[in-house]
Amino acid sequence: MRPMGKTRRLLSVALGGAALAAALTAPAHAHGQDDDGGDARDSARSAPTWQLTGTGTDARFRGLSAVSRSTAWVAGSKGTVLRTVDGGRDWRNVSPPGAGQLEFRDVRAFDARRAVVLAIGDGEASRVYRTEDGGATWTESFRNTDPKAFYDCLTFFDHRHGLAVGDPVDGKYRILSTADGGRSWKVLPSAGMPAAQPGEAAFAASGQCLVSSGPRDAWLATGGGATARVLHSADRGLTWTAAESTIPAGDPARGVFGLAFRDRRHGIAVGGDYRAGQPSPRAAALTGDGGRDWRPAAGPVAAYRSGVAWLPHSRAAALAVGPTGTDLTTDGGRTWRTVDTGSYDTVDCTPDGGCWAAGEKGRVARLAR
């Protein structure tokens, strides 16, 4: 998909950072300013665009983990897991055997061989699988046995330490923890978790309802309650504090769906109302203090957005995706502009300048020249 003509220049300016800049041809310098007042510099005669890749499946991919410009993993409906190591020219079906009835909603890959995938659902439908050989074989490392639990998202701080989050059980969010790369998991004590609001839950829409930055900080996005909140932990999930976002909630279909933090202070939240045709005002927010306080975007995303990612090496640019398009910010999340109208559920970028998006009907795309 190509960005709208009048926004091609805007997208070109936004794609900051040495890795992306080096990948672009015929640069012509332009300047912007990030939320810290710093310069966001990049340029190109022709802007990169989303380039669809052929996955050979109609599965819906809400789980995406980009390793590099060449390597990415996606996880989705019908127990489908795919992997590419050549920039999307070829996708290999590496789905766990016997998983056809499962709904994979999140995946975290450490490299081309090691990855962890999360299946969602009530009771035993919530599972975690791990591979160490590129998906040739899988080990089921967790199966939920609590009929009241329903797991949504997972995140890793490093190659060993990670968390998974489940919807509230007995009034508090359920947190799983691993210290061995996903080989084993344990339920963390709930004493440090604030009480959930009535009707509140996490959305398993993009694999971004639970995210992390650095060795210990994690954030959890919520919706469905009276207010849409973001919970923060600075100790790998043992204790949490809750802050209200400015994204509207008050309905089971509304709230914060995706989070992205470029460091432990600066974050973006996106969401809205996921029902088709429903308005999603004020569906983007930003924080500069680690999530203690959130302020609304002055120019919010155009519609419901489920996924968001910072552009590599940029303090100002990020992409947000949803079923009706892709929005771009070049000022740290204060204002957004639609640059593509293709349908995607999730987005992820890598330090070497690779950005990927995935969604319905087998759609997986890479940001190309």
Structure described in brief:
With about 375 residues, the chain is mainly beta. It has helices spanning about 10-15, 20-25, and strands spanning about 30-35, 40, 50-55, 60-65, 70-75, 80-85, 90-95, 105-110, 115-120, 125-130, 140-145, 150-155, 160-170, 170-180, 185, 210-215, 215-220, 230-235, 240-245, 255-260, 265-275, 285, 295, 305-310, 320, 325-330, 335-340, 345-350, 355-360, 365-369.
Characterise the protein shown here:
With 369 residues, the chain is mainly beta. Helices cover 4% and strands 40% of the residues. It has helices spanning 8-14, 18-23, and strands spanning 31-33, 39-41, 49-53, 61-66, 72-76, 81-84, 92-93, 103-109, 115-122, 127-131, 139-143, 150-156, 162-169, 172-178, 186-187, 210-213, 217-221, 229-233, 241-244, 254-261, 267-273, 284-287, 295-296, 307-310, 318-322, 325-329, 337-340, 346-349, 355-358, 364-368. Strands 8, 9, 10, 11, 12, 13, 14 and 15 form an 8-stranded antiparallel β-sheet that branches. β29 (355-358) and β30 form a beta hairpin. It is globular. The relative contact order is 0.16.
Write the layout of secondary structure elements.
Blueprint: H1 8-14, H2 18-23, E1 31-33, E2 39-41, E3 49-53, E4 61-66, E5 72-76, E6 81-84, E7 92-93, E8 103-109, E9 115-122, E10 127-131, E11 139-143, E12 150-156, E13 162-169, E14 172-178, E15 186-187, E16 210-213, E17 217-221, E18 229-233, E19 241-244, E20 254-261, E21 267-273, E22 284-287, E23 295-296, E24 307-310, E25 318-322, E26 325-329, E27 337-340, E28 346-349, E29 355-358, E30 364-368
Antiparallel strand pairs: 1-2, 3-30, 4-5, 5-6, 6-7, 8-9, 9-10, 9-12, 10-11, 12-13, 13-14, 14-15, 16-17, 17-18, 18-19, 20-21, 21-22, 22-23, 24-25, 25-26, 26-27, 28-29, 29-30
